[in-house]
UniProtKB/TrEMBL annotation:
It comes from Peribacillus simplex. Residues 9-112, 117-248 form the DUF1980 domain. This is Membrane-spanning protein. The keyword Lyase does not apply. Keywords: Membrane, Transmembrane, Transmembrane helix.
Amino acid sequence: MKRFFIQRLEGLLLLGLGLMIFKLYVSGYLTKLIAPKMVPYALAALFAFLVISLLRMKKQKQGEQHCDCGSNGESSSSALVLKYSLFFLPILLGFILTDFTLSGEVLAKRGMAKQQAQMVSSYDSGKHANGEKISVNDDNYFEVLDDLLNNLDTIEGKEIEISGFIYREDTFTKKQMAISRLSMSCCVVDATLYGYMVNGNVEGMKTNDWYTITGTLKKGSYKGEPVPVIDLKDSKKIKAPEEAYLYENVQIIQ
């Protein structure tokens, strides 16, 4: 019976994995763990897990009349349950948990990504930095940031509007914060924090809350590197977007 017991455990394990992926997909949480470009692969895995699990369960049922004389009895079965429980626990958490965003403590340990201007860009340099007002959105986030990094000497006094969540580090003063976004290339493990340093009356703005801010740009520094800094003029608290990650053009700034 040991062989068939293993087959049943493996079938249940694969079935659980498939159902977990399905639950994350229909609930919209899947893209909080993997980038949209990886979703087709996850759905293919979902289909494969379900098919293989059914085959394993069917094979076990058909073979029940045979005897596995090499079985070690209950002690062996208990050991197998313990071993396979290491796989069932993450599946259980996948069904129970609903918040898959990175915590403030994790972000603080990672810090903001090192921002360096790129010498070659796929767009017109100065396109955003030379405008009267710079409006940053999900589609142009990295393009704008790279453009500003390439034109730090000409951005003084330019007005900017941007949305993101509030991020702070222990080294920041009471008048400092960062308006930040998380980017993802493949999965949450490679999530990277990007942001703009902000100076002004920011003490009442709670860390991790989402805001739309407007301000004026100037050249500043972060950890010894020249970066665009925003002098805060106005802020408005907003709800966190359903899609909190940025996915495209992450390669522009690294």
